[in-house]
Write a structure and sequence with these properties.
There is one protein chain. By secondary structure, this protein is mainly alpha-helical. 75% of the residues lie in helices and 3% in strands. A hairpin with a 4-residue loop joins β1 and β2. The longest helix has 32 residues. It is globular, with a radius of gyration of 22 Å. The protein starts with a helix and ends with a helix.
C-alpha cells in the first residue's frame, strides 16, 4: 500500500473500529481512539506534500491494481497539482472536527466519530481516484456518512434536510454515471481518466458529456439555482457536519469540473463557458444580497459559501492561469475560513443554544479570547489582505481583468457584499454593549476550543502571508490543463 491508500483506508479502518467496539459507557476511550485515528491520518498526508515534485504536471504517488478485471476497472490512485492540497486539507479538518466534538457530543459518540473518520477517507479517495468508476464509487459513498450525520445528530428538521441533501446530490450524479459508461465504450473499454482526456470527441458528444457532468458537479458545489439544499443542510447539521460540508464536500463538485468537464470536454467547456460564468456571477451578486438579510448566523455563512464557490467556478471558466490558480486557492482558503466560521457559531450555540443574531450582542465583553478569533475569521471571510480569504479572490479578479474588465468589476462586488453581511453580523453579535442577559453569563473558550480555533487561525494567517507554498505545486498542472483546453479548441 502506498501513501494515498493509507490516507484513504486508515481513517476508514479507525471509523469501522469505533463502530464495532464503541459504546457510550466508554466514551473517553472512543474519543481518544478517534483523535489518534484522525491525527495519524493527517500525519500520513504530510509526506505526500513534502515529497511532491512541483516541477511536473505528471501524476505522483501513483498506485494501480486490477480491481474488476472483466471490465478493465482498476484501483488507480494518484495526485497532481490540481488535487494535492485537498488530501491534507481533508485530514486536517477531520482532526479539528474530532476536537470540536470532544465534549459536545454525549450520545452515540462512537457512531458520530466513526462517521466522520469514514467520510474523511472516502473524500480523500475522491481527490485521489484516477479511474472513472472508482471516482464514482467514492463520490457517491460520501453521501452516506453525511446523510447519517445530518439525520441523526441534526436539528429539529434534520430528516427533511438529510433527505433533501441526499436526493439533490444523488439525482445529479446519475447523469454523470451515464456519461462515465459512454466514455467507457467510446474509449474501447477503459475507465482510465487520463485516457479519456485524450479522446478526440466531436462537439455534440462533448456537449452532452459537459452537461451530464454539470448536473452532478453543479449540485455539489452548489451553483445557483440548484443551491437550495445547502442552507437547510447547514442549519440542521451538527457543527461538525457543517464544518465538513462547507470545508470539503463542496470542493468535490468544483474539483470535478477540473478533472472531468474541462479536460474531457474542452471544446464544450469553451463553448458554454458563458453559461457557467453567468450562473457564477448570479451566485456572487444575488446570493451575496440574500446573505445580507439573514437573521440566522448559520444561514448567513451558508449563503456566503455559495457566493464564494460561485467565485471558484467563475475563475475556472475564464481559462487563464491566474483565474484557475486563484480559484483553487479560494477552494483551499474557503476550507479554512468557512470551517472556522461554523466552528465559531458552534461555540456560541453550545452555550446559548441559539443561532439567531438577535440573541447576542456584546459577546466581546464576556468572551474576549473567543471574539479575537471570531473577528479574525470574519475578516478573512471579507477578504482582508493578510488572510487566506484575500489571496484567491484577488488572483481571480486579476485573471478576470485579463479576460473581461466588466465581468471582473462585477465579480469584485463579492468583496463589497462579503464585507457588508459579515461586518453586519460581527457588529451585532460581538461588539457594543451586552444586549442580552444570558450574554453576561458566558464564559470564555476553554483549552480545547482555543486549540481548534488556534490551529485554524494559524492556517488562515499562514496562507494569507505566504501563499507561495500553496500555489507552487499547482502551477505546472494548471499550465498543462490550460494548454490542453486551448489546443483542443475547434477552429
Amino acid at each position: 500500500m502506498g501513501l494515498l491508500s493509507i490516507a484513504i483506508w486508515l481513517p476508514v479502518v479507525f471509523g469501522a473500529l469505533l463502530l464495532a467496539v464503541g459504546r457510550d459507557q466508554n466514551a473517553g476511550v472512543v474519543r481518544a481512539l478517534a483523535l489518534v485515528g484522525a491525527v495519524a491520518s493527517f500525519a500520513v498526508t504530510i509526506p505526500i506534500v513534502t515529497g511532491f515534485d512541483s516541477g511536473t504536471a505528471a501524476l505522483q504517488f501513483v498506485e494501480k491494481l486490477s480491481w474488476i478485471a472483466r471490465f478493465n476497472v482498476n484501483y488507480h490512485l494518484g495526485v497532481d497539482g490540481l488535487s494535492l492540497w485537498f488530501v491534507p486539507l481533508t485530514a486536517f479538518i477531520t482532526v479539528i472536527v474530532v476536537i470540536a466534538a470532544w465534549q459536545v457530543i454525549e450520545e452515540r459518540v462512537a457512531q458520530y466519530m466513526g462517521a466522520f473518520l469514514i467520510l474523511s477517507g472516502l473524500m480523500v479517495g475522491v481527490f485521489s481516484a484516477m479511474d472513472g468508476l472508482l471516482f464514482y464509487v467514492f463520490f457517491e459513498a460520501t453521501l452516506i456518512p453525511m446523510y447519517i450525520i445530518i439525520g441523526v445528530w441534526g436539528g429539529p428538521r434534520r430528516v427533511y434536510a438529510a433527505f433533501k441533501f441526499f436526493l439533490y446530490t444523488l439525482a445529479g450524479s446519475l447523469l454523470m454515471l451515464v456519461a462515465l459508461v459512454y466514455l467507457y465504450f467510446v474509449s474501447g473499454g477503459s475507465f482510465d481518466i487520463a485516457t479519456w482526456h485524450k479522446l478526440p470527441l466531436p462537439l455534440n458528444a462533448q456537449t452532452l458529456l459537459f452537461f451530464a457532468f454539470f448536473a452532478a458537479f453543479s449540485v455539489k458545489v452548489p451553483m445557483w439555482p440548484v443551491h437550495t439544499w445547502l442552507p437547510d443542510a447547514h442549519v440542521e447539521a451538527p457543527t461538525g457536519g457543517s464544518v465538513v460540508l462547507a470545508a470539503i464536500m463542496l470542493k468535490l463538485g468544483a474539483y470535478g469540473f477540473l478533472r472531468f468537464s474541462m479536460p474531457i470536454a474542452p471544446d464544450a467547456s469553451r463553448e458554454y463557458a458563458w453559461f457557467i460564468i453567468a450562473l457564477s456571477l448570479v451566485a456572487v451578486v444575488y446570493i451575496g444580497l440574500v446573505a445580507l438579510v439573514q437573521q440566522d448566523m448559520k444561514k448567513l455563512v451558508a449563503y456566503s459559501s455559495i457566493a464564494h464557490m460561485g467565485f471558484v467556478t467563475f475563475g475556472f471558466f475564464i481559462f487563464n492561469d491566474l483565474g484557475v490558480a486563484g480559484a483553487i486557492v479560494q477552494m483551499i482558503s474557503h476550507g479554512f475560513v468557512s470551517g472556522a466560521m461554523f466552528l465559531s457559531i458552534g461555540v456560541l450555540y453550545d452555550r446559548v443554544h441559539s443561532r439567531e443574531i438577535a440573541a447576542y450582542g456584546g459577546v466581546a465583553n464576556t468572551m474576549p479570547k473567543f471574539a479575537a478569533f471570531a473577528v479574525l475569521f470574519a475578516m478573512a471571510n471579507c477578504g482582508l489582505p493578510g488572510t487566506a480569504g484575500f489571496v484567491g479572490e484577488w488572483m481571480v479578479i486579476l485573471g478576470a481583468v485579463k479576460f473581461n474588465f466588466w465581468l471582473a468589476a462585477l465579480s469584485a462586488t463579492t468583496l463589497v457584499f462579503g464585507a457588508g453581511y459579515t461586518l453586519w453580523m460581527v457588529k451585532r453579535v460581538y461588539f457594543g454593549e451586552v444586549a442580552n442577559p444570558h450574554v453576561k453569563e458566558l464564559t470564555d473558550i476553554n483549552g480545547r476550543e482555543f486549540l481548534m480555533l488556534g490551529l485554524l487561525a494559524a492556517a488562515v494567517l499562514w496562507m494569507g502571508v505566504y501563499p507561495k507554498v500553496f500555489t507552487d505545486p499547482m502551477n505546472a498542472s494548471i499550465a498543462e490543463l490550460l494548454k490542453h483546453v486551448a489546443m483542443s479548441k475547434l477552429n
